[in-house]
Amino acid sequence: MKSNTFIVILIFLIFFVISFLSNILGPIIPDIVSGFDLSIGLAGFLPFAFFVAYGVASIPSGILVEKYREKKVLLWAFMMAFGGALLFALVPTFTVALVSLFIIGIGMAMLQVVINPLLRVAGGEANFAFNSVMAQLFFGGASFLSPMLYSYLVLNVHAGTASNAVINTLNQIVPADLKWVSLYWVFAVVAFLMVVVVRFVKFPEVELKEDEKIDTENAFKDLLKNRYVFLFFIGIFCYVGTEQGIANWTSKFLQTYHNIDPATEGASVISYFWGLLTIGCILGLVLLKIFDSRRVLILFTVGAIVSVLVGLFGPVQAALYAFPLSGFCASVMWSIIVSLALNSVPYHHGTFSGILCSGIAGGAVVPLIIGGLAELVGLRLAMLFLMITLGYILSIGLWAKPLVTNATVKSWKELFS
């Protein structure tokens, strides 16, 4: 029991690290643009390099897990994250940044594939739902904290004031004109520590369920005949694209149109975006006990559309609240789309889940499209592309016909029983 509890805590820590490494791009994009003198279009290739790795690596990672087991894949994943972060920390150029982000992205994709089945076994099936929610809270907590760490480092590295040993060390190894590169030294240290921890931990034997296995032969053929597979893949693509489109371009938008400092107030907006997205997950769990998931999806998507439009066209004070609020509205989308997808296709759930996870590549494509459009029409109008992705998510609530709908309560007493 002690061993399993330790493994569950370790998995929560892995969720934290994944989010910590994955969701920092948004706040630092303005600094990357100015530090490397990039156009907005070129900056769009940064999230592309990271998230396209999910599309490339998700299904192969599932095959690796079945062949080499969880511990080896976890080690390889953190070693890739360490190597990618260290490479960029040592050679901070735009070209190296693209390579580094792709390597880190592959590592994060490998981790995502491993940890859910591992969490089910380590914590017990009876506790899996609770532990999954806890894992998402850790994930969201890291997304909330990482922009704050960015602000702290940028304000203190090479600040010229007496500081602690960590800042003094970073002063020696980080270029004065690229203070945000200090984040990648932190990432490298965190990833290396995770390699050490995983190396000495004994993991339980994970027997994959049928709905967790990936079949690259017959299952793919069967699934590709079902139009809902393609439709829900596009849904995941649009959701992650929307999430990353907002997270990656909001700080630059606020800097461009409202002269907001990306290292302080801009980072805070992104921090609250992820914080409210996490809080919204908790409210979403309650609402899904009361209402049909499709109605909840429609309600929250409309809220996201309104929030983004207010953020783009409202005054500065409205924008500072509206963009974080869009995170709150996006909070339920992932879980509802995935559950509707799995409840709409009665077979090959493991392979279908792999296909859905490949849709995370939307986080690569949508920010890139926004960056490209911004070169032509400006960032404000370019971010209206999010209306297309949100419009598709809204449509899911109208056309989805799950074979099994989510269970709802009949009274308030049932809700808390």
TrEMBL record:
InterPro entries: MFS, MFS_dom, MFS_trans_sf, MFS_TsgA-like. It comes from the Bacteria. Keywords: Cell membrane, Membrane, Transmembrane, Transmembrane helix. It is a multi-pass membrane protein. Residues 7-409 form the Major facilitator superfamily (MFS) profile domain. Pfam families: MFS_1. The keyword Metal-binding does not apply. The chain crosses the membrane at residues 7-26, 38-61, 73-91, 97-116, 128-150, 183-201, 228-249, 269-288, 295-314, 320-342, 354-374, 380-400. It is found in: Cell inner membrane. Its main location: membrane. This is Sugar MFS transporter. The lineage of its organism: Bacteria, Pseudomonadati, Bacteroidota, Cytophagia, Cytophagales.
